[in-house]
Q: What sequence folds into this?
């Protein structure tokens, strides 16, 4: 008998048909991948299964019986648990207290601690119930969420993009746990767009595109090309890059240090880095290790560094305001698309004005026609799917908004570009387009610093890699010499200390 | 079953229709209220909606009330749009009237006819000083601007009292707490004989246009708006939150001060303890009912003034308490907030539950 069966599930949202006659069959003990681009309808489908939203039509069968799941409470009562991509944990409470808060019944805190120890022992999850959550790494936090789900003894566990925040080693550990869980009879729905992982872990995959099922495959028997064809309806273009002689040093960090800001910020400790014109340097590492602080120091949002610790084309910009940095040709694409790189409720035209001043007349008045024309040009040139310059930023999908933001900065002809999470939450088609734009920029002689949590992306894009951990930067190594295993160790902060600057360390590594 | 569901994008039609719908709901609720009080609803509504507009004299009175509301609310639009919370416009209004009086009391019968311009400028300066004080405390000591601006209202009242009970008291005023009546050169010229409407009215309309241009057509106005909507985006773009803070307080203080100056140099013609009538607080409602848009502010101010006058007339003609004014103003704000939901959401009839058999 099937654990879960969805028959002809459809869900219409204003303006978009999120699910269109979707069928899904999950067997007991099966690790079942749901594969698709952003906007393919994966999240809606999971929300329907977890009772967050109801389908317009179609049937849900649980252990063979037709059911209606009206709320997450009902879903949990059936034995469905879900681990969301974004954690909901209280930083100031301990692991046990966080788990305790999420339980429907009310056992004592001691009983909860015992059960956490029992479950973590059983599935090989390392987790100390007494530790406060703010002292945990992202991987450990995810374990808290998983333990919380396991305490309800689910017979179906839904995981939404669980590896997006993990180091390679943490991913391996997670997979061990999931395999044990499946072997004990629990079904797992594994949502992802990372093909390698799905092929390594999952027994079966259902592929979605545009709200419809485009195929069901055995991932171990399928190639990446097969899967991405089902997902995209075509293969993403290969990234082409030419060898290029490195140019002059563009961005130089010399012992950049910043004290901790806020309770849970990361202090930056003596960062040394040189990025030359015409090369892409990737910053790998799990987020929360100082990337945010480094970005703010580069953007000018944070001006507390010691003078001389950041130079751009030879000019000390450590205390320079953002306007001055832009005048020097520095452009930045922050991680948060909504609310930082754009203002959600304003139109694309108005968002163009955020970092572009071509349409500001000397009198201080705005040239509105010029602004609309510039925005229209960005929309057309970077293939942004939007109704026009008057569409609000929030009306665009994540991928299209990111294309707009990256386009806005690239179109300003930067001499140096800093990008954080260039393709986070962006569908595969848009991601490959954005990466191609970044490489084109490099080929044109611009220096780039790319921070990303996706190692595969950095391996594909970068000429050199550095790893950020605990507010420090590792020595820089050529991407061609980098191995995932070694980078994984570095992400835990374990790299050989180099006495020299980045170039010397490179030799030490080779 | 009637269900509220989010729209794919905000409705432009509802953005315009919402205030009208809110007004209609206010009228209906008001009519019900009069009926419950045992009065003729039509006669009651007439006091609020028709009488204040009947004839040149009534319109003049309306302009006297609406002008300060418009001026103060214009300044507050700049503040609230940039996420700076100045709720002490009343204090800046008082300081404006004090500074203006300081100049006006120096007038002699031989002063030039343009002296009133100096009086108004002094008022603006007073308001800016009082607003600037809040900005400075916020900037230098990170003091909460909501509390500081509000508390400074009470300080301003004490300053006013000290002056009219002390050094500025009219020696021929039978010991009333008031200054001497200002001489003609210090007073704002009237627009028409037989009406109290004065030069403040065209000035307010002119400034409405200027503020609209500033907020919607200049880079500076855009920067303020971004700072208010998304402080992180403003930081990323490099728009200074300090300059937004100072701009907001100096502009709104100046406008409140100008309104205070127009009040003492206009209909009142002297400084008394009765000058502050709460325009500074009412303007907060005006700014929001006018959706922080200068053109909307004009309509909101007229409406609020009608309610003021309507309340007074219900008291004198229908024997109802004057606090009806507050009831109507509250109803309007409440209805508007409710109707604004329809800009981002809409009602839909869900004919049946989704076709899933129960389990």
A:
């Amino acid at each position: 008998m099937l654990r879960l069966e969805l028959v002809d599930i459809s869900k219409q949202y204003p303006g978009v048909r999120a699910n269109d006659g979707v069928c899904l069959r999950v067997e007991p003990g099966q690790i079942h991948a749901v594969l698709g681009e952003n906007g393919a309808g994966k999240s809606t489908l999971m929300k329907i299964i977890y009772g967050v939203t109801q389908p317009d039509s179609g049937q849900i069968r649980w252990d063979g019986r037709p059911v209606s799941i009206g709320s997450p409470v009902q879903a949990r009562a059936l034995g469905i648990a879900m681990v969301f991509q974004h954690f909901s944990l209280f930083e100031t409470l301990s692991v046990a207290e966080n788990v305790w808060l999420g339980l429907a019944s009310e056992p004592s805190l001691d009983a909860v601690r015992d059960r956490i120890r029992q479950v973590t022992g059983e599935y090989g999850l390392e987790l100390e119930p007494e530790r406060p959550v703010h002292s945990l790494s992202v991987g450990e936090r995810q374990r808290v969420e998983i333990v919380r789900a396991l305490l309800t003894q689910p017979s179906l566990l839904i995981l939404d993009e669980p590896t997006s925040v993990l180091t390679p080693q943490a991913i391996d550990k997670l997979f061990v746990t999931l395999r044990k869980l499946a072997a004990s009879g629990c079904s797992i729905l594994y949502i992802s767009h990372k093909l390698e992982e799905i092929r390594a872990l999952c027994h079966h995959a259902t592929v979605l595109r545009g709200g419809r099922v485009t195929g069901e495959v055995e991932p171990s028997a399928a190639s990446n090309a097969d899967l991405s064809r089902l997902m995209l309806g075509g293969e993403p273009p290969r990234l082409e890059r030419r060898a290029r002689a490195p140019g002059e040093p563009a961005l130089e960090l010399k012992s950049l240090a910043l004290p901790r800001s806020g309770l849970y910020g990361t202090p930056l400790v003596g960062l040394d880095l040189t990025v030359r014109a015409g090369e892409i340097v990737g910053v790998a590492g799990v987020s929360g290790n100082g990337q945010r602080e480094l970005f703010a120091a580069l953007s000018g949002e944070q001006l507390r560094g010691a003078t001389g610790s950041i130079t751009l084309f030879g000019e000390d910009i450590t205390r320079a305001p953002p306007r001055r940095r832009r005048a020097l040709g520095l452009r930045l694409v922050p991680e948060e698309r909504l609310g930082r790189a754009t203002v959600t409720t304003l139109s694309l035209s108005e968002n163009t004005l955020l970092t572009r001043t071509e349409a500001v007349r000397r009198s201080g008045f705005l040239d509105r026609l010029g602004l609309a024309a510039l925005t229209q040009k960005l929309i057309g040139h970077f293939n942004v799917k939007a109704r026009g310059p008057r569409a609000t930023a929030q009306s665009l999908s994540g991928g299209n908004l990111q294309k707009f933001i990256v386009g806005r900065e690239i179109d300003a002809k930067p001499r140096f570009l800093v990008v954080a999470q260039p393709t986070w939450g962006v569908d595969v088609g848009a991601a490959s387009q954005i990466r191609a734009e970044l490489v084109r920029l490099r080929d044109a002689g611009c220096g780039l610093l790319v921070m990303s949590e996706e190692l595969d992306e950095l391996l594909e894009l970068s000429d050199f890699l550095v790893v950020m951990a605990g507010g420090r930067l590792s020595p820089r190594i050529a991407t061609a010499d980098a191995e995932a295993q070694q980078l994984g160790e570095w992400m835990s902060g374990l790299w050989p200390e180099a006495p020299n600057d980045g170039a010397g360390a490179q030799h030490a590594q080779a | 079953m009637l269900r509220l569901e989010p729209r794919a994008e905000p409705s432009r039609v509802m953005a315009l229709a919402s205030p009208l719908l809110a007004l209609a709901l206010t009228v209906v609720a008001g009519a019900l209220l009069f009926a419950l009080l045992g009065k003729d609803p039509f006669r009651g509504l007439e006091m609020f909606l028709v009488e204040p507009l009947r004839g040149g004299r009534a319109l003049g009175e309306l302009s006297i009330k609406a002008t300060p509301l418009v001026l103060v609310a214009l300044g507050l639009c700049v503040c609230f749009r940039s996420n700076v919370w100045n709720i002490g416009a009343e204090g800046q209004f008082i300081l404006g009237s004090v500074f203006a009086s300081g100049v006006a009391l120096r007038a002699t019968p031989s002063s030039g006819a343009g002296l009133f311009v100096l009086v108004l400028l002094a008022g603006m300066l007073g308001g800016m000083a009082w607003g600037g004080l809040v900005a400075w405390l916020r900037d230098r000591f990170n003091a909460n601007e909501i509390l500081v601006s509000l508390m400074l209202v009470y300080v301003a009242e004490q300053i006013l009292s000290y002056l009219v009970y002390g050094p500025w008291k009219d020696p021929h005023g039978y010991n009333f707490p008031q200054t001497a009546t200002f001489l003609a050169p210090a007073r704002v010229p009237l627009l028409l004989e037989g009406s109290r409407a004065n030069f403040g009215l065209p000035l307010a309309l002119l400034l409405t246009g200027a503020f609209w241009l500033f907020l919607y057509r200049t880079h500076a106005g855009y920067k303020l708006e971004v700072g208010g909507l998304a402080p992180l985006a403003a930081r990323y773009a490099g728009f200074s939150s300090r300059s937004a803070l100072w701009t907001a307080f100096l502009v709104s203080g100046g406008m409140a001060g100008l309104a205070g100056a127009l009040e003492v140099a206009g209909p009142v013609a002297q400084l008394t303890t009765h000058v502050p009538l709460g325009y500074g607080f009412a303007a907060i409602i005006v700014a929001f009912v006018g959706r922080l848009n200068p053109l909307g502010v004009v309509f909101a101010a007229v409406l609020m003034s009608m309610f003021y006058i309507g309340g007074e007339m219900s008291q004198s003609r229908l024997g109802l308490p004057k606090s009806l004014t507050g009831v109507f103003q509250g109803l309007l704000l409440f209805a508007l907030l409710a109707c604004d939901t329809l800009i981002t959401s809409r009602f839909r009839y869900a004919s049946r539950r989704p076709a899933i058999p129960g389990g």
Observations:
- Chain A has a mean pLDDT of 87.
- The interface with chain B takes residues 13-15, 54-60, 62, 65-68, 299-301, 321-323, 326, 332, 334, 336, 339-346, 350, 353-355, 357, 360, 364-366, 368, 392, 395 of chain A (CB under 8 Å).
